[in-house]
Each structure stands twice: as structure tokens, then as C-alpha cells.
Amino acid sequence: PGRRVVQPIIQVHPERAFQPLRIGEGAQDRGFGDWVDEAAILSALTDSERLEGTFRMYLDDGLNDAPSWLMGDLIDVLGTGASAAAVERARRAEDFPGMEPYYDAIEAEIALRRWRPAEAIALAEGALAAVPSAEVLLQARLYAVLAKAYQQQGRDRNALEAMQRVMQLDPGTIRRMSMALPARVIVTASGSEAKRVARMLGRSPRLSRDSGGFEVLVEGAAGALRVCLRSPLGDALSCADAPRPEPEGDDAPMGTMAYAQFVAQRFHDRAFATPLGVSAVDLNSLDGTTTVRAEEERARLEQLLREVD
């Protein structure tokens, strides 16, 4: 009597317990190791304090290898209910000023997964207005959340504008969040190789057919093709030159099909790569490795937050 009974955050989540394993959007890019990783993360976060510490970013109390711009991926592992409870607890425990936009960013993704686009948009816009300017990858992710929320509302033009911001900040976000750019493929090069490249690009999971969106241009000549991506406004976003590789030793020259695959892969590698110039908190290192001590991390964050004042 007089005591509040608090249930553990991690149980068998009702929203996940009765769901069959779905091989859906993004699953074609996943392997067995990804599912093993998810099981390991879920096991590691069964401790409620560790879970809370993980959602308190830049604190060495949880999965300290998770940078701010990948925190949203944990929602798919934990479920929206557990993630929302963890964020609520983290907010209550937070004693560091300026962390609210980070929690808003996570809650925006929770709202998106719960099909609450208006709530997701409000949270994402608030977070974008407050996160430090150096958090480039987190900003890109927030624009991706906006794009998905606008799509849920049927606001295609707004979604296109948000996707263009994603591509300007960090095109790799499109790949990491299993998104597809509305685009049309235009072939100006002649020959069967160019046509094969266009057909492959038309089947890409990173592109969806739309005559009013982005443009993918297949240019050049046989054996020296070039694929460029343009924004809906006609701005050049990226170009991938793909001359036919010279055969090595006694190898036969690359055939038409193999060369078309090479060109399509070169385009994807260039168009959806994280810019090398991005320094969002040093990306917390690109592989997610913690490179400084927890105290130093908090000091760096404090310096970043001063930019907002």
C-alpha cells in the first residue's frame, strides 16, 4: 500500500509478441547477421537502467556505441511501447540542459511508426529547430522522418522537399532508412548497355517510379557510361562515371550484363553515400565506436549546444 508498482520496461511486447516475422521493406538488404545483432541488442537491453542509459545519449550508461543519428533504429528492435517508456524515463532522469531535441527526435520516429504523422511532423520540426548545427546526420534523419510522415498524409510535394534536404545533408540516410526516391530514369546514351542500366535502375529499391520527382540520367557512350541524379528542381546532386574496367591478366573483357551491373552499382555507391566532409560529432566514428571518454563526450556536447544559444 502506498507504493507504485512499476513493471519492467522489457517484457514480451504485446505489439511484437503476436506479429509473425515479416520480410518487408529493407529486408532484401539484410542477412542472418542482422537478425543475430537484433537479438543481442534486445538481450543487452533487458536491464531497465541500461535501456534508460542508452536513450540518454552521450552518457556511458548503456549501449554507448549508438550515435544519436542511429538511435531510431533501436525502435524497430525494442518496439514502440518499450522505446516510448524508455524515452519517458530518460527525460525524467535527464539533468543536462539542451537534450530535449534529442528525445523529440526519437519520439518523432515512434509517432511515425504508430502512424501518427501530424505528431511526428511537429516533433521532428521542433527537434530540427533546436539540435546543434554539427549534428548533420541527425538532421538528415529528421528530414527523412518528415518525408515519411508527409507521405502518410498524402503530401507528396512536401515529402519531395524533405527528401531533397536529406540528399543534400546525407544521402546515406535514404539507404539506412530503406527509403525510395520518387524518380524517373532518362536515357540519353545509345546502345544496349545503357538500356540495361536503365532497366536495372528502374528496379532499384532506392528509386520508385514518379514522373514529377527526381531524375536519374544515363549519359555517355558504350563502355563509358555516366549516371547522374538531379533534384526535382533540376539541381545536380551527384554523378557517377563508370568506364568499363580493363580486364586483368587473361580475364575476358566485361560483358554487357556485367558492365550494366557495374554501372548501376557505381551509381548507388556514389548517390547514396555519406559525405566524407560530414563532421557530426566526428560521426561518433563511422563504425559507431566510442572514441573518447564519457566525460569528454558530455563536454563536446555542451560545446555543440552553445551554438544553439
In brief, what are we looking at here?
The chain is an alpha/beta fold.
Q: Can you walk through the features of this model?
A:
The protein contains 13 helices and five strands. A five-stranded mixed β-sheet has the order 2-1-3-4-5. It has helices at residues 14-17, 32-44, 48-55, 73-78, 80-93, 100-113, 117-130, 136-152, 156-169, 172-176, 192-202, 256-271, 294-305; strands spanning 181-187, 207-209, 214-221, 224-230, 236-243. The radius of gyration is 22 Å and the shape is elongated. The chain is an alpha/beta fold and 309 residues long. Helix 6 packs parallel to helix 8. The longest helix has 17 residues, at 136-152.
Write the SSE topology.
Layout: H1 14-17, H2 32-44, H3 48-55, H4 73-78, H5 80-93, H6 100-113, H7 117-130, H8 136-152, H9 156-169, H10 172-176, E1 181-187, H11 192-202, E2 207-209, E3 214-221, E4 224-230, E5 236-243, H12 256-271, H13 294-305
